Each structure stands twice: as C-alpha cells, then as structure tokens.
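Researcher: Checking consistency across runs. Here is Malonyl CoA-acyl carrier protein transacylase again:
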Amino acid sequence: MGKIAFVFPGQGAQAVGMGKDVYDALPHSRAVFEKGDEVLGFPLSRLIFEGPDSELKQTVNTQPALVTTSAAYLEALRQHGVNPDYVAGHSLGEYSALVAAGALAYEDAVSLVRLRGRFMEEAVPGGQGAMAAVLGAEREALAELCRSISEAGNAVELANVNCPGQIVISGSKAGVEEAAQRIKEIGGKRAILLEVSGPFHSSLMKEAAERLAAELGKVTINTPSVPVVVNVNATAVTDPDEIRELLMQQVFSPVLWQDSVEWLIAAGVDTFVEIGPGSVLAGLIRKIDKTVKVVNINSLESAEAGW
C-alpha cells in the first residue's frame, strides 16, 4: 500500500478570507485562530478574514497567517483520522509541517514565524534585493550563470527549485536583473520579477538567520511523530537538534522542493495531501510526477470529504 505525505504551502498562497469556512463551522479550527490572536497579542484572524490585502501581504503578517490557516485546516482533516507517513512544507510551510508532526507546538510556530518574517524584512534595505521566477532553464546552467554574475560583484543565487522548468532566483537587485536579462543565453524562456519584500533564500539573509537562531534556541522542538522532509537537503529528518539547525539554514539556503518531492516518491509516497490555502504545491507536484495522487484540503468542503 502506498504512503501519504502531508505538504504545506509557503508565502504567496495567502488570500483574504482564507480559513473563514472552517473557523465558522468547526470548534477545533476556530480554537487555532483564537490561540493565534492570543499568542501574538493582536487580532490576526480579523486581518486574515477581512484584510486589507496589502497588510496581509506584508511578510511579517503573511507568515503567521499562513501557519495559522494551515493548522486550522489540519485540525479539520484530523477529525477524519487521516494520518501521514511523512510531512514537508515549502519554505514557511516547513513550520506548518513541524506542527503537523508534533515537533513544534502551534503557539511556538506562530510566534517564531512572526519574528522570522520581521527579521527577513529587516535584513536587506528596501529596494536593494529582488527575486525572479525563471521558466524553462536547466538547473545547472542557471546555477552557473548566477555564479558568474555573483563573482563579478552582484550576488544572485538559486532560491527555490520548484519543479522542472521553474526555478526562483534571489539576491541583489542588480544581480537578479542581470540574470533575468540573460536567461535566453542559457536556453531559458523568460524571467518574471516577483513582488517580494526581500531577497529570500539567498546569502543576503544570513543576518536574519542569525537572529532567528537565537529565537529557535528558546523553544522546545520535539522528536516528530513522522519524518519531516526538509527544504535544505531534501531528506527526512527526525532529530530535534538537526531540525533546529536546518530551520536556521533554511532562511539563506535554496528550497529544494523538487528534490523533496522526488525523495518522498522514492520512499513510497503515492498520495500528497496539500493542507492550506490555494493549490500551488499540487500544481508543482503534478509537474514533477503526473502519476501520483494529489489532494487539496483548502476548504471546509474538501476537509469534510476527507479525500
């Protein structure tokens, strides 16, 4: 029998109104939102449900909002007794995955990602960093292009290896813009500059990672109930100290999402359950392997259906 992986989305999946259906219908899910408001000391749930969108999109708000909404949908699914063999999350989603595996208490996760968002926003002055989605380029060729531009003085690196033909690059504004302009030199189709508040998952985030490390040292990380496949090295991890170290490294390291999904499939996973708003990961997983089953738990209806 095939195995199940729960996967959780990262920044970009947010939308005003997300999670309101399970908040209204299910006491366990409502309790997650109420706990988030209490822990953070401000009405996060009102921002999630009512907006404004411009405020929800601020990294410092987006990160706790997504972890909270994913945790609320997870509670809705748990009422049906569905349990995973593995968990994984895309960037920020790794915190939701750790909550699902019992490695992090939700209260600690939501507090950490609020700080993580703030540290990431503050690491690089506005306008100095950038990110771009590159379509149709080979990974090695793109990495080599980024290396040559960085060596010439403008940092740019691979940030998210999402699926075949879709890689996000990150770094200095000048470096990212130069790489974007030169994509066709390496056989890529095009590059799209992203609306983000900083050069996430690049070496320019090392200061944010150091600040986060101090906060990670204050929270308890338990041995997860199931292995967590992490972004930094796309392998399953169960040791709490290793999880803590990799969460710090994740801030400035590329998100190896394609590699993580391929690892899970090789480990026998044939059903991926994306828990949280949107369906970004489902789309990426289908591009990585069309034969696996992908389920979205992003509404009360889908959670009630179980599958």
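Researcher: Does this match what you'd expect to see?
Model: One thing to look at in this run: The mean pLDDT is 96.
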